[in-house]
Design goal:
The protein is mostly helical and 320 residues long. The chain has 11 helices and 5 strands. The protein has a 3-stranded mixed beta sheet. It has a two-stranded antiparallel ribbon with strand order 1-2.
Length: 320
């Protein structure tokens, strides 16, 4: 509860009020969130299992994909279970430290995912444009170092945003019109003119992200140029099948995040904020496994062997 101490409002907890007040709509959102969360967990755990157990999925691309699925599992687990529990118990509070932890984890995992997507674009560039040197460039040690650097950069990114967001006083009410603690909603509660630091960090982050996105685009221009030089249609299709899922995931991740911050900056209604937050916090972790498993030929073969083998064994046992 807010406590007045020497004319400064000390907020000890926040109230996450992102869901509608209508009881039926709340239950509908709970059911929807639960199924989205369950789908995301199942899809990403399946990717982790396949890329760990199948000996044909041990290439660097699948090592990075396993890391991406682990990030998505953690990313969606930071916000959705808490929001479902709050709605079911009609207790919408989150402690100040809990809110700090949520902001850190969301930004940490989002930063790590973006860094990993950049690494994966470099992996595709090396595989297609420099195939003779690919095994030397993307050796196991280099892959582990790149993945570790992605996690470390995400941690630094999360710490910077936490420092920028919570280095100011919160003068407004403690009502956060979101189902989790996100930075744009928290900045509306800070004292007037006191959130310049975080806005500066966001602008700098956007500029750096845009520069990295340009590098990804340059990589894919070279990739597509190399693909078009392949003489056979089968060879071109096979190469596209390993590159297009990654490009689709990058586009989905960046576009959802950009739309979220643009809409938040325009101070849209809370219902629109809820939709946009769902777009960038729930949709990418849920769709990433679908995109990779449906577009990647090796993943489809591994899925077929996993489920086909189990069904064949079960049928054989029933037969005897």
């Amino acid at each position: 509860m807010p406590q007045k101490i020497t004319n400064i409002t000390m907020i000890m907890e926040f109230l996450l009020m992102g869901f509608p007040d209508d009881w039926m709509l709340q239950r509908l959102y709970v059911v929807l969130f639960f199924f989205i969360y369950l789908t995301a967990l199942m899809g990403n755990f399946l990717i982790v299992t396949l890329t760990t157990t199948d000996r044909h999925l041990q290439a660097p691309m699948y090592f990075f994909l396993r890391n991406l699925s682990l990030i998505d599992i953690c990313y969606i687990s930071v916000t959705v279970p808490k929001s479902i529990l709050n709605c079911l118990t009609h207790s919408y509070s989150i402690s100040f430290l809990g809110c700090v932890a949520q902001v850190f984890l969301v930004m940490f995992l989002a930063g790590t995912e973006y860094a990993l997507l950049i690494v994966m674009s470099y992996d595709r560039f090396a595989a297609i444009c420099q195939p003779l040197h690919y095994e030397t460039i993307m050796n196991r040690g280099a892959c582990v170092q790149m993945a570790s650097a992605s996690w470390l950069s995400g941690c630094i990114y999360g710490c910077i945003h936490v420092a920028g967001t919570f280095s100011v006083n919160f003068c407004g009410p403690n009502l956060v019109h979101q189902f989790f603690c996100d930075i744009p909603s928290l900045l509306t509660l800070t004292c007037s003119g006191k959130h310049i630091l975080e806005h500066t960090i966001i602008i700098a982050s956007c500029c750096f992200s845009f520069a990295c996105f340009i590098l990804i685009i340059v990589s894919y221009v070279n990739i597509f140029s190399a693909v078009l030089k392949i003489s056979t249609n089968q060879g071109r299709l096979k190469t596209f099948s390993t590159s297009m899922p990654h490009l689709t995931v990058v586009t989905l991740f960046l576009s959802s995040g950009i739309i979220a911050y643009i809409v938040s900056a325009l101070r849209s209604p809370s219902s629109m904020n809820l939709f946009i937050s769902v777009l960038y916090s729930l949709v990418p972790p849920t769709l990433n496994p679908v995109i990779y498993s449906l577009r990647n030929r090796d993943m489809k073969v591994a899925l077929g062997k996993m489920f086909g083998g189990k069904w064949a064994l079960r049928f054989k046992c029933l037969k005897y």
